[in-house]
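Whether sequence alone determines local backbone shape is best considered at the level of individual chains. For completeness, the protein is quoted in full, as a sequence line and a line of structure tokens:
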Amino acid sequence: MKKIFQYLMMLTVILMATSCYYDEMPPEAEIVIPEVVSYSKDIQPLWDQDCVSCHKTGATAPDLITANSYLALTKNNKYVIPGNAAASSLHKSLVGDGAAIMPTAGKWSDSKIALVDKWINNGALNN
């Protein structure tokens, strides 16, 4: 009986050891940056995906829900300075330049940041 128990324990350990693995997160796909960046097609989906859970009406400013985001970002050049991504507080938050990195879940890929920067540098149009 003792040998059977030892055999079963060894078999259990072997089965557990061979079944242990973890999935690696695939790298985030690079975003293809279009010639003309559209706020509604290219930028707002980024807010919807990664930001509106915290930045919504009645929560942390700026309000990034679809109906309010453009005005919230561009009014009085508070977060976005059209034509100057490097001076915009939005850019600084995305890269951690004197500001906390946003989103809080982790820094965006360089291609996402480049997309937002291109939109800002091209005048931050509401298109």
